[in-house]
Amino acid sequence: MATKKKFYVVWEGRTPGVYSSWDTCKKNIDGFAAAKYKSFTSRSEADSAFKNHYSNHISTFSKSTKKALKISHPPSHNPIRDSISVDAACSGNPGKMEYQGVDTTTKTQLFLMGPYTQGTNNIGEFLAIVHALAYLKKCELPNKIIYSDSQIAIGWVKKKKCGTKLAESSKNTILFELIDRAEGWLKNNSYSNAILKWETKVWGENPADFGRK
Asked: 207, 78 in Cβ contact below 8 A?
């Protein structure tokens, strides 16, 4: 019986991505202390998993794999430095909102948008992630990772829909136009960049944090 083809997702390794052979995957994880990887039976499943945080797929591991993961990859693993971090700041809820994206390692600002009136932090996080995706697509960087500390916004991006309950008004018309554009971009563009949760409790503040707490 022929061996079924497998595809390997490397969330954290020398070069994160989706690989069609174990040998290539192994080269990216051997000796990498915080490697996060898993095999899938189809390319589409692997591509979809790569866009999510690795922890979303831990529940599908066998008991032995879970045990190995717990031993090999403690919660103190480091973030991938070759990445973009995004964050939003909002004075009030709703209130004056802005967002930015920075290089995770150098904290060099890559974009800054706002302030916009009558916004929310989650809207800002959503717009920041989509802005980062569009930025990386324009720069032809399909494998660069995006970090956000908002699990809610990450979920909205996956659904290609901003799930805010904020009502549109004359004060935030421009903001809702941006939301429509972001949703349109997600529906009309594909991307392979992984969007991962910034683990604030382990790593400290997101590099893109505005420092206004």
From this structure: no
DSSP 8-state assignment for residue 4: P
Q: Which two tokens stand for residue 101?
A: 């994206």
* E-strand stretches of the chain: 7-12, 17-19, 36-40, 83-92, 95-103, 109-119, 145-148, 195-197
Quote the tokens at residue 81.
């430095």
Q: Cα separation of 191 and 179, whole Å?
A: 18
Q: In 10 A of CB 181, how many CB atoms?
A: 13
- 3-class SS of residue 162: coil
Contact 102, 146 (CB under 8 A): no
Residues 6+ apart with CB under 8 A from 55: 197
With contact defined as beta carbons under 8 Å apart, do 18 and 46 qualify? Answer: yes
pLDDT by residue (tens digit) across 19-53? 999 988 888 887 666 678 889 899 998 888 888 87
Cα(60)–Cα(65) distance, integer angstroms: 10
Three-state secondary structure call for residue 105? coil
Non-local CB neighbours of 167 within 8 Å, separated by 6+ positions: none
pTM (predicted TM-score): 0.67
